[in-house]
Design goal:
PGBD-like_sf; Peptidoglycan binding-like domain-containing protein; signal; YHYH_dom_bact; Muramoyl-pentapeptide Carboxypeptidase, domain 1; PGBDSf
Length: 116
């Protein structure tokens, strides 16, 4: 009886601290408690500054190079996307997860549209 009760206690404890698993295609989600957007995908929770995962090594192909915020804004404007929701609108119109974060997939799609 004590063994079953102990096992039940452990299971309930684990469930109370587990992650719900609702992440986008890039492994990220909005943190409702702190208001930020962060990623896990096999690492501790972390941000992706400028859309780049700090745990991944940089690649040398042009499709995976990062873009500065100014470059992203300028490139999106050439496609007609301006304002605060430009990234999310571009993502939505191009079949990406519309999270408003210019990650690798978004930058790759921008480069494809630019013909790079």
């Amino acid at each position: 009886m004590k063994k079953k009760l102990f096992t039940l206690f452990i299971l309930i404890s684990l469930l109370a601290f587990s992650h719900p698993g609702r992440t986008d295609a890039s492994g990220g989600h909005r943190d409702r408690k702190n208001g930020g957007y962060h990623y896990h995908h096999g690492y501790p929770a972390h941000d992706h500054p400028n859309g780049v995962c700090p745990y991944e090594s940089p690649k040398t192909t042009s499709s995976s190079k990062t873009m500065s915020k100014a470059e992203i804004k300028k490139n999106l404007a050439t496609f007609g996307y301006t304002g605060d929701n430009a990234i999310a609108e571009f993502q939505r119109d191009n079949g990406l997860v519309a999270d408003g974060v210019a990650g690798k997939r978004t930058i790759k799609k921008i480069r494809e549209r630019l013909g790079e």
